[in-house]
Structures are given as structure tokens and as C-alpha cells.
Amino acid sequence: MPTYLVNLAEPLPESLGDELAKRIYYLADGIDAFALVRSEDRVTGVEITTRADADPAGLARRLDHVSRTEVRPQRLTAAAPLWTSPHPPAASSGTFERLRELGAVHEMGPGAVATGRLFSEVLDALDAGVLALATDAFGAEEFRYPALISTAALHKGGYLTSFPQFAMTASCVSSDLDVYRAFVDGMAAAAEPSAGAPPSEDADSPAAVIDRYSRHSGYCLPPTMCFHTYLQLAGRPLPAGGAVVTSRGKSFRFESRYSRSLERLWDFTIREIVFLGDTDTVARRRADFLTAACGYVGELGLAGWVEPASDPFFAAPTVPRRLLAQRLTAAKYELRLPVDDGRSVAAASFNVHGTTFGESYRITLPNGTTAGTACVGFGLERLAFAFFCRHGTDPTGWPAALRARLPS
User: Fold this and answer.
1) How confident is the model at residue 202 (pLDDT cuts 50, 70, 90)?
2) Which parts of the sequence belong to the Aminoacyl-transfer RNA synthetases class-II family profile domain (predicted)?
């Protein structure tokens, strides 16, 4: 595979290296690997390996555009954690491999992991604890949502213009007899390419056949649960006192080659809690739930911390301004939990949106004014993985707060 040294037109400060790295795989199809090139305290370029020959000038153009418009304008400063667990982190390594050996996880493809009884029972027990917080302490009403969400609903909420790199859409074969026949013939002749290789010259791959004969279905795979809730409540007033809605469901984000074990999946499970009402009330409920969640993490004996965060906006000229606004208004906090080899994952986020989604979906208070919203989301696979990294796979050593919720 060819490798290209792509120099930045203007080097970046080392502090922005991670922000640049988060965007490399989205610059162009076919990027297989990359490494930042550093000189002293600057990032001077990127060494990019591609699966086939690429245009170095095109790579340089994309890299400089992202560096100039999205990365360089950011002014990152280290923020003190809002909360730190009283439990110290414990060194761990090889947890995913041990879970795989026990049959607790099975890799099904890039970003897709099946879970067996051991992992699933822990995930469900952890979720039960979060659900109890939502329903018992905050009066949340639980809903179960579809595995599809309309493209129009995601567009209305601004997701497709904020995070195009993550969007995963649902297609269907075009409704035409001739197309169906051509599709069947194409599939009959299709050959799966070998790992890492393009399809043979004599037959298309199944994926290429689908691309040729399919159309957009009008649906996307949901990137999170809250958009379902906004769609459900769209165009009508909230009851007096607002509403609290919780749901658990599969969520999907195209993480490209950033996927890693259970730490970053394309297909994962979220427990979400959405607060709707006047802006002061939903902000207070967000803060109260954050406090309750930190207490729950402590009961689980997990190390971790809560810190200010921002969303991975991409490919829009408004990215730096939106990132700055999030940081200045404390609109987003993340609960980070240690995992293997000194890494950490964002296992939960706590977000307040003002009236952004109330305006987009025309959700109002009883007096007709626009409602405010806030949401809390737990990535359950990440939460469970962090638990195994901390406590291992032997249930006899697990905290009572978790064991009490396991099946008898």
C-alpha cells in the first residue's frame, strides 16, 4: 500500500494534534492508516497510507482545509474536572481479549460486537441502575423506539449538517421489476473480495451491487435516542411541569477506522434521558442527574471523572464557533472512565441545549413559548467494558450495587 508524507501548509501546535487526528480518516475514502508527523512542539504533517494509489495534492488540499477551518481556530485549554471519583484507577490490560476467550464478546465486523451472557448480564444490570435513577428520582416515562428514524427528522434537528461523518442511512432496492432482476443477476455473480483487497475484475462485490440498484429509503439509522423523543413530541405543548422521557436502543455512527474493541463501535446501545420544560428547569435537572450519576459510579467502585467537553462537529464553516459556544456555556459534560492501558472512554454525556430543539421541532410550554431541552446519554457497552477493566470477570469480587441487579 502506498504511503504519502503530506505536509501541512502551516504547522499546528502540538495541543491540537488530537483534534486533527480525529478527522484524518474522514478526509478521503481509502485511507488505511496514518501517523502525525511532529517536530518539537508542532505537528508539521501527516504520513498517510492508502489502500490504492491516491492523489497527494488532493490529500494535501483536504488536510489543509480541515486544519485551517476546523482545527486551528480552536483554542483548547485544560479544564479542571467537575468531579473526580474517590476510587483510584487500577492498572488493567488485555480485558477485551479475556472477554473474547470467555465467549463474552464476539467481533462480527468493523465496529460491530456481539455479546454473550456474561457481558450482556452486566450491561443490563448497569442499565437497570441508570433506569432506576431516571424513573424513581426524576419520574421519567420509558418508551421503546424503532431501529429506524426518518431522514426528515434528523435533518430537522440539524444532525446531518453537524455530523455528516457519522451518518448511516438505510437503503432499499428500487421498486422496479427490471431493477429486481438485474439485482438478482448481479448478486448471483457477485464475489466477496478477500480481506483488504478490491473485488475481482470479473464480478462486483455484493456491496457494489447494492450501491448500483438501491435508493434511499427515507430512513436513517438513529445516532442516538433523543431525536426519537423530539419527533414524538413535535408540534405540541408539554404538560405543566414539563416532561422526562427515557429510552434504550441501538444507535449507529460511522466511526470509520477509529473503531476499537468495545471502546468505539459503529453499532452500540444508549440509555438516554431527555428533559423538556422551561430552560431553567431542564438545566437544573441536568445538573441534578449528573450529581446522581456520579454517586452511582461511586457505588460501582469505578474510577473516573467528569469534565467539560464538546461535540465532534465536522465539515461546516461554523465548527469553531459552535465548539467555542459549547465550552463557554458549559453545554456539555462527559463522564470519562478508565479502561485498559491508561486509556479512557466517554461513558456518558450530560447536555443542555437551550431552546434549539424546541424551536426545530416546535415543542412548546403550556403557555405557547418554546420549550428548552437537556439530555443525558449512557453508552452501555463502554460503561460495561470499563466495569470489567476495573473489576475483572469474576463476579465474586464485584460490588454489591451491581451483583444485586444480576439475574438470580
Assistant:
1) very low
2) 249-407
Does the pTM surpass 0.70? The reply is: yes
| C-alpha distances out from residue 18 to 195, 256, 306, 315, Å | 29, 16, 19, 17
- H helices within 114-205, ranges in order? 117-132, 151-156, 159-162, 177-189
**Grid cell listed for 405:** 441487579
User: How sure is the predictor about 36, in pLDDT bands with cuts at 50, 70 and 90?
Assistant: very high
Neighbours of 305 (CB within 10 A): 19
The pLDDT mean for the chain works out to 93
C-alpha span between 153 and 276 (Å, rounded): 18
Q: Is 247 in contact with 229 (CB distance < 8 Å)?
A: yes
Per DSSP, the three-state class of 392 is coil
Residues 111-140: tens digit of each pLDDT: 999 999 999 999 999 999 999 999 999 999
How far separated are the first and last CA of the chain, in Å rounded?
Answer: 53
Burial 43-54 (b: 16+ CB within 10 A, else e): bebbebebeeeb
C-alpha to C-alpha distances, 334 to 255, 305, 381, nearest whole angstrom: 19, 8, 16
What is the Cα–Cα distance from 62 to 64, expressed in whole angstroms? 6
**333 Cα distance to chain centroid:** 14
